[in-house]
Design a protein that fits this description.
mainly alpha, 2 domains, extended
Length: 237
């Protein structure tokens, strides 16, 4: 969305020469990004969760009421999209797009070494935490270790496994990701290629040839039967 916005309207070139617009927008995006995280963190100290409120606003498919009116408002599962997460991620991406200072920070050599593995980390971190992390936590806790030490060791084990698997998993993931993003960018930045007929490169005569061929191999009884007698016609209303 942001790439298409810049491609169509060149909003970044328009923003930078106008500090009275650029800086208020930048700080507004920072506040929105932080607020999106804050409403999740506030649940650690209060009994009210913004995610539960938002989930209750959506319609209940069984009754037609809102979920809260139907009495089914609960904290949503992790895979259900949330408004604060959407606003935070879009705001953070917009900050990176328009802030040269942040772009310079993200261009540091250490971060550039991690950058090729970002998508792989995103894809597999949950699987490692839920599988190896769960196994490590239960196993360590059986030895009578304190909870804080179990959490520390589980973090070391999970992140060690994660980074050890990156050299193996990143190349195929990167190949697929580059191919997809290249096609996406081409479709967004170039005029669409003229559509070709289904029979390309043979042309429409291929359909006529196939039709003639199918008629030539029809059973003789179908060809000689002739039209159906009127007694077999059905009334069509």
């Amino acid at each position: 969305m942001l790439a298409d916005l810049d491609l169509t309207y060149k909003y970044k070139k328009w923003l930078h020469p106008r500090p009275l617009v650029y800086y208020p927008l930048l700080w507004a995006l920072i506040v929105i990004a932080l607020a999106g995280f804050a409403v999740d963190l506030s649940f650690q100290w209060t009994d009210d969760a913004f995610a539960t409120w938002e989930y209750g606003w959506h319609p209940d498919t069984k009754s037609g009421l809102s979920i809260s009116q139907a009495g089914d408002a609960v904290y949503p599962d992790y895979f259900i999209p949330r408004l604060n997460a959407l606003l935070s991620t879009v705001s953070m991406q917009a900050i990176v797009e328009i802030s040269p200072a942040l772009q310079k920070v993200l261009s540091h050599k250490i971060l550039q070494l991690i950058f090729p593995h970002i998508f792989t980390i995103y894809l597999i971190h949950g699987f490692i935490f839920w599988s190896i992390g769960s196994w490590a936590m239960c196993t360590l806790f059986e030895y009578g270790l304190p909870y804080w030490l179990c959490c520390l060791l589980v973090a070391i084990i999970c992140y060690g496994t994660l980074f050890a698997s990156l050299p193996i998993l990143t190349p195929p993931v990167e190949a697929v990701g580059k191919s997809f993003t290249l096609r996406l960018w081409e479709n967004a930045s170039q005029e669409p290629v003229p559509r070709k007929p289904t029979t390309f490169p043979f042309g429409p005569e291929l359909l006529r040839r196939n039709q003639d061929l199918s008629e030539s191999v029809r059973p003789a009884e179908e060809i000689d039967a002739g039209p159906e007698p009127p007694s077999t016609w059905r009334k069509t209303g």
